[in-house]
Amino acid sequence: MKFGVSTLALYPSPIEKILDFVENLGMDYCEIINEYPFDDLNYEIFESYSLDVVIHAPISDINIASHNHAMRRASIEEIKSSITLASKINSEKIVIHPGIVPVLGKKFINKIEKYNIDALREIRDHAENLGVKICLENMPNLEECLCKDLNEVYKIVNDLGIYTTLDVGHANTMGLDVEKLKIDDSVIHIHISDNDGSYDTHDALGEGNINFTKLFKKKLKNYSDTITIEIKTKEELLKSIEYLKAKKIL
Predict the structure, then answer these.
(1) Mean pLDDT, the chain, whole residue set
(2) Burial, 191: exposed, middle or buried (Cβ in 10 Å; 0-12, 13-18, 19+)?
(3) What is d(CA 235, CA 9) in angstroms, rounded to the nearest whole number?
(4) Ranges for the Xylose isomerase-like TIM barrel domain (predicted)?
(5) Which CATH number, 3.40.50.2000, 3.20.20.150, 2.170.16.10, 3.40.50.720, labels domain 2-247?
């Protein structure tokens, strides 16, 4: 397994300070959320570090399933721009969120779902041309979210020939049962954070009710790809790393 840290916990420090910090932690890579203040990155910066990089496409104000054509088009182009960045810095994969159901879109759910699939197909084609792997993330249990059910995500990614980001914290808000958790062959990236199942709080590992020991020992024992610690503060990030070391996972 390769462990990395999301910029979520270290935002909004300058990217150089974040990379220094993550490298000093001994992590394998840094996952960068590619929006302000990390929306206009000089890709030559990364040549000074031994860290690998995973790009997370922007999420604020982005909706690839919007039924406003201009907003949907702009969202798709923003994600395609992140894919181009990923290719320039040799990030082999990029994390993307599915679209969301607009306030006035609930009565047109079939149309919204089609917008989502059509957008993912266009994004996939752009990524394939640049040699980048699209990793679609399962969403938390919020009314407006598409792709909350992990099995739905697996169906979409297998139909489109893309990949999955398994977000364990998101899955927990959907009633995660580690014993029954299915890790599809499409899963090549994982996010870990903790919560009590009621909301996606990105708490430190060990502060919620997710059984990470069982998850790693039973479900991830043969997994060898990337795992991002996606925690909301620096203090909780450090606590999470100590937790993983104490459990002999890291």
Answers:
(1) 96
(2) buried
(3) 8
(4) 20-246
(5) 3.20.20.150
